[in-house]
Specification:
Strand order of the largest sheet: 8-7-6-9
Order of helices and strands: EEEHEEHHEEEHHEH
Helix content: 25-40%
Number of strands: 9
Largest sheet: 4 strands, antiparallel
Length: 231
């Protein structure tokens, strides 16, 4: 049996505490006579350097002890020793918190660029279900595309190809949380159009109705991706 619950908390930055909706996850499992409890965190505020390898001494000093206290409090309440789990792509759990990865020369690693950015971008290039759910998200030939603007600038491009049964959103900057979430929203809309039986270009026409149709163009997908990343 396994049960889990996500927790809301506050991360101290400067002179204020920022509310985090998904700061922790507490899970408990029971198999025969073995019972275990785990604490998972979704923040890098407990480490001396953030996931990009940038120093955050003040943030670390204000928050690290809270995680350490939570771990030891759970240990005492459950009468169980702290057993750090295996390292993830992002950090190394310890008995008192979380530690950064470091390069061979001792500098903190930029695991954000190495792992999180490729993971995010993969959502736009690979359809779920091993490519069998929704439209394909990659194409070899030319695609019809239109730019999508955010509050300040173009955040990406919607594109479609009937010949290859493909359509997706090409984001300009998946590292930016707002742009990334907006891109996921467009993927959801494309999935909905697919489930209603629309062809890729029909979906593009429906979704880009409010957009400037004069911006529609045809371009090779490889070139579109190069242009998007370059800009």
């Amino acid at each position: 049996m396994y049960a889990e619950a996500e927790g809301i908390g506050g991360i101290v930055t400067g002179d204020r505490a920022a509310r985090e909706e998904r700061l922790f996850l507490v899970g408990a499992s029971a198999v025969l006579d073995y019972v275990s409890t785990e604490l998972v965190t979704f923040s890098d505020a407990w480490m001396p350097y953030d996931l990009k390898g940038q120093a955050q001494a003040d943030v670390y000093a204000a928050n690290a002890q809270k995680l350490s206290a939570a771990l030891h409090g759970m240990s005492e309440a459950l009468h169980s020793e702290i057993d750090p789990d295996e390292p993830t792509y992002f950090a190394k759990p310890t008995e008192s918190g979380v530690d950064n990865y470091r390069e061979d020369d001792g500098t903190p690693s930029d695991v954000w660029s190495s792992f999180e950015v490729p993971h995010r971008y993969g959502k736009f290039t690979h359809a779920p279900g091993f490519g069998h759910i929704g439209y394909k998200r990659s194409a070899e030939g030319p695609v019809l595309c239109v730019p999508v603007r955010g509050p300040r600038e173009v955040i990406g491009y919607l594109w479609a190809s009937d010949a290859e049964g493909a359509a997706s959103f090409e984001p300009r900057n998946v590292s930016d949380d707002e742009s990334y979430e907006a891109g996921l929203m467009w993927l959801d809309r494309l999935r909905s159009a697919h489930d209603r039986g629309l062809s890729p270009t029909e979906a593009l026409a429906e979704l880009t109705g409010p957009l400037d149709q004069s911006k529609l163009s045809t371009i090779d997908l490889a070139s579109l991706r190069e242009m998007s990343h370059r800009n």
